[in-house]
Amino acid sequence: MSTRTCLIVDDSRIIRKVARRIVEAFGMEVDEAADGAEALALCTGAMPQTILLDWNMPVMDGLTFLRRLRALPGGMSPKVLFCTIETRAERIAEALSAGADDYVMKPFDGVILQSKLSGVGAV
């Protein structure tokens, strides 16, 4: 079986480190990006199977990244989980309508993340 790949996009190095530890435990290969622009460049090079995406980031926010990702060749294939502190239903709906597969509230742990990743078929 081929190795599953995950891109973690968050401007917080600590969040990326915590998320990396969790998804590597699921046997995934991990890349990291500090903002949407960096993530988009990585995706044009090699499209990951799963993306954990922060909402609020400098340079390019998560929603802008997601819309641009979905417009790329092959950009519909990754499973995208928005990782956010955003709790308003209309904001969550906006993320889902922009192409997110699901969302997970910060702070998250391995159990929550595994459940969400399983739910979208990523693990």
Automatic annotation (TrEMBL):
Q: Where is the Response regulatory domain?
A: 5-121
Tell me the domain of life.
Bacteria
| UniProt keywords, alphabetically | Phosphoprotein
Q: Which residues form the signal peptide?
A: none
Ranges in a coiled coil: none
**Positions where 4-aspartylphosphate occurs in the chain:** 54
Matches recorded under SUPFAM superfamilies: CheY-like
Read off the PANTHER family from this record: TWO-COMPONENT RESPONSE REGULATOR, TWO-COMPONENT RESPONSE REGULATOR ARR22
Task: Indicate what this protein is called per its UniProt record.
Answer: Response regulator
Organism per entry = Brevundimonas vitisensis
